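tl;dr need the bound structure. longer version: we got a ligand (iron/sulfur cluster) that a collaborator sent over and nobodys looked at where it sits. i said id run it. heres the input, straight from their email, havent touched it
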Amino acid sequence: MAVISLNISNYGKCLCPVCPVQLRSKCIAAKNEGWRQARLKVGEMLKQYHEHPEAYEMEMSELEKSEVGQRHAFTEPKPADMQELYCSEAVGKSNCSDLDEGKMCQCPDCVVWQQNKLGSTYFCLSGAA
Ligand code: SF4
Ligand code: SF4
């Protein structure tokens, strides 16, 4: 089974932020500020993608120490603040207990899922791929 990297490339492709399984969760909503700040920083760095394409594929921990990461005061998002990439070992199962498992997981439409042939779904409920 593929190990999913916690990098900006995968972060940007993940469909979890628009998934109905977590959309109405009060627990997820309560984490929104930390999550929003991380997204803003990633957005700022993506604007410089053409200058720093190497940053796109770096693990978030490496990115934090890199020249481009430091210039943007990027800090690796805390796994508990993240609302995406549950399929990665670094994030894994959500610690929210009010996710709606009756709704449809969006993973099969995700490029990360397709490229890595992940097969299973609902990583937010069952843990990393
Ligand atoms: S496979 Fe699922 S959890 Fe993993 S990046 Fe895609 S949407 Fe997110
Ligand atoms: S892992 Fe699947 S069910 Fe969970 S939030 Fe991501 S897309 Fe939705």
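gonna send this back to them w/ a short note. The chain has a mean pLDDT of 93.
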